[in-house]
Amino acid sequence: MLTNTEISKQFKYAPIAEIAAHLRIDPADLMPYGNEITKVNIAALDKPRTHKNPNRLILVSATTPTKAGEGKTTTSIGLAQGLARLGESVCLALREPSLGPCMGIKGGATGGGYSQVVPASRINLHFTGDFHAITSANNLISAMLDNHIYHGNKLNIDPRQIVWRRVMDMNDRSLRKIVLGLGGKTQGVPREGGFDITAASEIMAILCLANDLDDLRVRLERTLLAYTYAGEPVYLSQLDVTGALMALLNDAVHPNLVQSLEGCPTFIHGGPFANIAHGCNSVFATRMAMHHADWAITEAGFGFDLGAEKFFDIKCQSAGLDPAAVVLVTTVRALKLHGGKAADALDQEDLAALTRGLVNLDKHIESVRQFNKPLVVALNRFAADTNAEIAIIREHVAQHGEVFAESRHFTEGGKGAEELAQAVIKVAVNGRQFKPLYKLSDSLPEKVTAISQKMYGAHDVAFTKEAEKDLQHIRQLGLEHLPVCIAKAPSSLSDDPLLHGRPRDFQVTVRNIQISAGAGFLVVLTGNIMRMPGLPKVPVATHIELNPDGSITGVG
User: Fold this and answer.
1) Is the alpha carbon torsion for 153, 206, 163, 438 positive or negative?
2) How many domains does the chain have?
3) 323 assigned to some structural domain
């Protein structure tokens, strides 16, 4: 099959102004970045909606993924193109790619085959600079903190108790733990510190959960940065830097509009990871898609247990959203992996392994039902899949009383996703209101237990001594009412990344709890989760090239 770049060259794209006009966006609200990309001013959300039909939000999630992923983004794009082929008004809302994974092991995040968003290389690399603005805002806070301490430390900040870390949008394990301020009297106050990746920055989560500019300012100001020698919390509002942060984020708050290969409008904005953050695109982008189309298609990172749970319990509760249905993406290869098939042999037909692996699909179907949502199980078909394998999955889903759709969007674009689009239209009329897994008034252990038992299938939750101290501190600060964002390995339903299938009779161990007061959630750390990834032995970056004609290959 042709490469993504070769496929994209077969299509002629409309100027982005025409795509915006198709959405009935006022030209005065466009902030163009050339002929292919434009930001859309969030002021457009204050104007009357011009569509008569009710807007319906569709969440695309997945079963527990393999290392390569199961194609949620590609399926989302294919679904949107399929709906458009059926004559529906549709718009996508997706996350922005992070440079770290693009240069590391994952590569680009703009879909693939005949279900891509374009211009892929620009989106996957610097795009409109949103990640850089977030990085700059985050690091301005760090610089202001260290500068405050250097110039007398009026707030009495304890350098040993600074919880705010610097960030950069690259995988670099060498920066996870470092010592700052070395080199003498003029180089600052020596202390321990480190870097996270920009996608893990609380500024990223804040921007993606903000409902408007006033809410953005409030979230920034309540961000916890450090503690004094007396143990009192120090919040961002005490640094008098909020105005500068708002200025740095002034352009970044506006969603970016691009298009798919078939001209489907696509907002791409914000990119928190789902294993260490809440894993959803911005509220601004989701609302923009819903405001300008009858169908809005969005996704949540990794499997349903991670991204989708946070989508419902954090994003939907904070922004007042309620999707009409869920699309649960699965693949033959993922189910064979969960049935015990070796990772390097997933292209081989193995009906027994596939049948054993269906337990992973079963658990995710049960998890969708926990939120009271209708669903479609979407089989993202790969070239090596056999009809016998697909028949087993189709029959199994039917036995659950759920709707199944095979999708060939990767090789056929929107045409290959028409069955999926029709299935989504069929189930989305149900209109059941979602039910959160827990009440915000529940204690933190009750919330963690609810997620661990209902989403992961754990029988119990244990808190380490460090986590117990964190919990006690959170209660002292009066923050136990916040929702929880569990940081967990994406490759397993459990907190052990090596346990595939449907683990049972296991215990989730909480090792630490971090406060993200600005974002408005508590990060519960399980297992060995890194907030700064490392590059693989052979990074994708070694295959990227700028060609003489100005095109870029090797990304996406």
Assistant:
1) positive
2) 3
3) yes
The number of C-alpha atoms within 13 Å of 256 and in the hemisphere containing its C-beta is 30
CA distance 7 to 9: 5
Q: Please, are residues 303 and 364 in contact by the beta-carbon 8 Å criterion?
A: yes
Do 406 and 284 fall into the same domain?
A: yes
- Dihedrals φ, ψ of 360, to 5°? -70, -40
Domain that holds residue 230: 130-248
> In terms of DSSP H, where are the helices of 67-181?
72-85, 99-103, 120-124, 130-150
Distance in angstroms (rounded) separating the CA atoms of residues 366 and 380: 20
The token pair that represents 511 in the structure block: 């090792």
Q: Which two tokens stand for residue 513?
A: 């709890």
Type and span of the H or E element at 327: strand 325-330
Cβ(284)–Cβ(253) below 8 Å: yes
DSSP state of 313: I
Cα separation, 51 vs 258, whole angstroms: 21
Residue 544 covered by a domain:
no
Pinpoint the alpha helices (H) of 400-502: 409-412, 418-427, 444-451, 465-477
- What's the average pLDDT block by block, 10 residues per block, for the chain (556 residues)? 88 96 97 97 95 91 89 97 98 95 83 96 95 98 97 97 97 95 88 95 98 98 98 97 98 98 98 89 98 97 95 96 97 96 94 98 97 97 96 98 98 98 94 91 98 97 97 97 95 94 96 97 91 91 90 83
Helix, strand, coil percentages, rounded to 5, for the chain: 40, 20, 40
